[in-house]
Structure prediction request, 357 residues.
Amino acid sequence: PAANEFGGSIEVSGITNFIDNGGNVLVAGSPSLDDPLRNLASECGLEFDEENTNVIDHVNFDHADTGRHTRVLVPSSNIVKSPLIAGAASKKPLLYKGIGMVLDPDNSLISSIVTGSSTTYSHDASESITEYPHAVGKSTVLVAALQGFNNARVVFTGSLDMFSDEFFSSPVQRGVAGSPRFDTAANAEFVTAVSQWVFKERGVLRYSDVQHHPAGTKESPGHYTVSDNVEYSIRIEELVDGQWKPFRSDGVQLEFQCIDPYVRTPLKGNKDGVFSTTFKLPDHYGVFKFLVDFRSLGYTFLVSTSPVTVNPLTHLMYERFILCAYPYYASCFSMMVGLVIFSVVYLFHREPKSKSE
Prediction:
């Protein structure tokens, strides 16, 4: 972390290009962090605190702390509630010693995985506080994750010690009398889960077998007609322990869009991971698309689009007589009857001759 440059041909721009091309990166920092990793973090939407600063907590510190309260115990409530990212829930705290971070509020792709407590702040432990700290309370981010629209994943942490054997095996206890003691911290399980997630060993989805056709048929037509009943299905699989298995969720939905969604309906999945639904096309013609855009915490973004054309009804497809048009039918026939009566009267009516004639 303290290196002034990466060395060789590796530069910050090269790493960002690697991420833009779908690569995954795990970055671990320390209080001696130098410019290269700071610039990389800035490109990804976060900022490390100044050099030689530490995360400090005068309430949640480990009993083995040297007195500066930089060996922080992070309660499990401050870890993101996602088994895919952080592993199974545990009551054991996370042992952390390192630098703090803050996130760019305008970057919606980056989020915190582990945050400090309300009593946490970031500062140089050897100096007195004369200015407001860079990060205070739960805005102090300890571990952050970025997932791009191309599903590239990047994880940042400000602690190298968090990955050490010492932090994996040390017994932990808050430095407050009567606090519970744990044989080990949650570091081993947490680091393993985060590493698997960032390198896409878990939380990865893929789709296949996208089908759509009129209800009751099996072939997809070249176009649809307004108000058709349509069946749609898509197969979604999840990578589990290196194997693709059927994905199960109640949150997958389908949108039928023409700029704006005209239909939004949930997709029901079966044991084979096939999600399907049947719906009626809107009474509107144009170029539409079937859109499945599934985004859930811990999973890769899954987006499937299928453009189709919806045509209006031809003149032979309309009903012969429409109920709401009966008044117009009546007016038309009444005018015809009136014309016939007028013609008969005009042609055959003759005024009687006067006596003088």
